[in-house]
Amino acid sequence: MVSKDGLLRTRIVVERKKVELAGRKLWALTYNGQYMPPTLRIKPGDRMELAVVNKIDKVTNLHVHGLHVSPSGNSDNIFLAIEPGQTYHYAYQFPSNLAAGTYWYHPHPHTQSAAQTAGGMSGLIIVDGLKKYLPESLRGIRERVVALKDFQVQGDQVRTEGLKIGSPTNRTVNGQLNPVIDIRPGEIQLWRIANISANIFYKVALPGRKFHVIARDANPVNTIYSADSIVIPAAARFDVLVEGGGPGTSELQTLPYNTGSAGNQFPRATLATVVSQGRAMAPAKIPTAFAPTRDLSNAKVAARKTITFTENAQGTQSFINGKQFDMNRTDFRAKLNTVEEWTVRNQSDEVHSFHTHTDDFQLMSKDGVPVRFYGWRDTVDISPRGESVIRIRFSDYVGRTVLHCHILNHEDAGMMATLEIVGDQPANGAGKEPIPHHHPMPHA
C-alpha cells in the first residue's frame, strides 16, 4: 500500500483466521486476513488515514513503531482502546523531515501486546528516501524486505497465551519458512531487516558476506559501517547493503544468542536460502560517508533521569523504578525542545530491550564504555546487571507517551512507564523554529 499525492488511506481488519504457515493451516491473529500483512509505504510530509476494524473478542489498538508523530488524539495514541466490534479511525500527519527507513506497526493494548503480536499482528512501514544518500550508481539497486516473525504452535493454532520466550519456535522471513532470496554475483541489494516478533532476539549472519549498515531503527547513519553479524533486539531494524557472492547457495542464519542466566539461550536457525546466480555484476564501491546527522554529545542537558528495570524472582512481574505500569499515573515529565540524559539500568539477570515512543535517542555509553556515534535509534538492549546512558531531545510534539521494555512479555508484566512531554508549543509542531527529527539542536 503506497501513498499517493501525499495521502495513504487504508483499512486494517483485525480478525482471527486460518492461514497457511509452514505447510499447515493454523488459526492466527491477522491483519487483513494475512499472517504477513501489507507493507505501508509513505513519504516524509505525508498524511496517513487508517481505519482499524476490530473483529476479535479482545480490546486492541495500533502503534506505528518508531515514527516521529503526535502521541495524542487519534494519532499514535497507545492509551486508547478499540473494543470488539468497533472501528477506529486513526489520522497521522508526518513531518516533512521524517527520517527515511524501515518502521513497523503492531498492537499495544496493555497486558495483550505480546499475545496479539505473537499471534501474527505485525507488519512493516517504509518511509521512502533512504537511497538518496547513496551514490547515483547505487540508487537503482533492488530492495528486499526481510521481516523476521516467529510463531509457536499449540494444536491447530498459533500460540497466543502462556507464551514462554525460550520455547521452540518457528522463525519466518516474510511469513515463510526458509524462503529463497536471489541475488547476482557482485550485485548490491538493500535489505530491510526488521525484528517484528513479540519477544525473541536475532543474531543475523550471512557467512562469507558482510552487512553494510546504512540505517538503524530508521535513522540513517553518518558513516556506513560493516559487520559480519548483527544482533537485532526485539523491535529493532537494520537497513543494510549486501553484495552477492560467487555462484552458489548460502544460508542467512540467526546464530546462537544468550540473553543471560535468567533469560534464554536462542539456538542457531536457518532463516532463508540465498542463491547467487546469473550474470555477474561488476562490484560497486560501498561509500563511507552517508547521511547528515547531529550529535548530542555537546548539547546542553536540561535534566537527568534514572530508569531502572527489575523483575521478581519468578519473572512474572516486571517493574520500572519499582512500579508496574499504570496508564493513569504519570511517571516522568520532560520539557519540549530540551535535551535530557537518562541512565537506563538493568538490575536483573537477563537482557532487556529498552524502547521509547515519539522521540528517538542517542546512545552515549554502554556498561561504562563510550559508544561511537553513527546516528539515533529507538531501541537498545540493556545488558544483565548493566546500564546504558542515552540522550534524547523532545521535539515537535507534546502529550503523554511511554517508554518500556520491548520484550512484550516483560512490557505486559508491568515494565512500562508513562512520560508526559510538556511545553508552550502547540502539539501539531507549529512553532518559531522547526526542529528536524533526528537532527537535534547543534552543539552548544
Description:
InterPro entries: Cu-oxidase-like_N, Cu-oxidase_2nd, Cu-oxidase_C, Cu-oxidase_fam, Cu_oxidase_Cu_BS, Cupredoxin. Residues 425-444 are annotated as: Disordered. The protein is mainly β. It has three domains: 7-129, Sandwich (Immunoglobulin-like), CATH 2.60.40; 133-276, Sandwich (Immunoglobulin-like), CATH 2.60.40; 301-422, Cupredoxins -  blue copper proteins (Immunoglobulin-like, Sandwich), CATH 2.60.40.420. Helix content is 2%, strand content 44%. The strands form eight sheets. It has a six-stranded mixed sheet, with no helix packed on it. It has a six-stranded mixed sheet with strand order 25-24-27-32-29-30.
Annotate the secondary structure layout.
Layout: E1 7-21, E2 24-31, E3 40-42, E4 47-54, E5 63-65, E6 87-93, E7 101-106, H1 113-118, E8 123-127, E9 143-151, E10 153-154, E11 157-158, E12 170-173, E13 180-183, E14 188-195, E15 202-205, E16 211-216, E17 219-227, E18 229-232, E19 237-243, E20 248-254, E21 257-258, E22 265-266, E23 269-276, E24 301-311, E25 318-320, E26 332-335, E27 339-346, E28 352-356, E29 361-366, E30 369-370, E31 379-382, E32 387-393, E33 399-405, H2 408-412, E34 416-422
Feature tags:
3 domains; Immunoglobulin-like; disordered C terminus; six-stranded mixed β-sheet; single chain; mainly beta; 444 residues
